[in-house]
Prior knowledge:
- The chain is an alpha+beta fold.
- The protein has one domain (2-85).
- It contains two helices and five strands; from the N terminus they run βαββββα.
- Strands 1-5-4-3-2 form a five-stranded antiparallel β-sheet.
- A hairpin with a 2-residue loop joins β3 (36-46) and β4 (49-54).
- The model has no long low-confidence stretch (mean pLDDT 87).
Amino acid sequence: MVSVNLYDKARNMLVGKYGQPSTETLGSVQDLNGATFDDAVTNWRIKEGVLLLKKRSSEVDKSLVQFIATSATQQIEKAKAVSDGAEGKAVF
């Protein structure tokens, strides 16, 4: 996590490196005191996986950059498919 003040710089760096994002969702979030803050969730689908940039993380003054490797995503999807296929089948 980094200071939300660095969000624009981080986004510009990622656009410079990976091009325009695959998706970007703009919105707002509200803290426990009712204050509202602008928000953005941006991701780039790259060969190696997905790069995610969140303007507001679990703390409204922190931004988050996260990388999810394709291999990890494939493993999760495979495990889910196996689990879904096992539902309703009795094991003796």
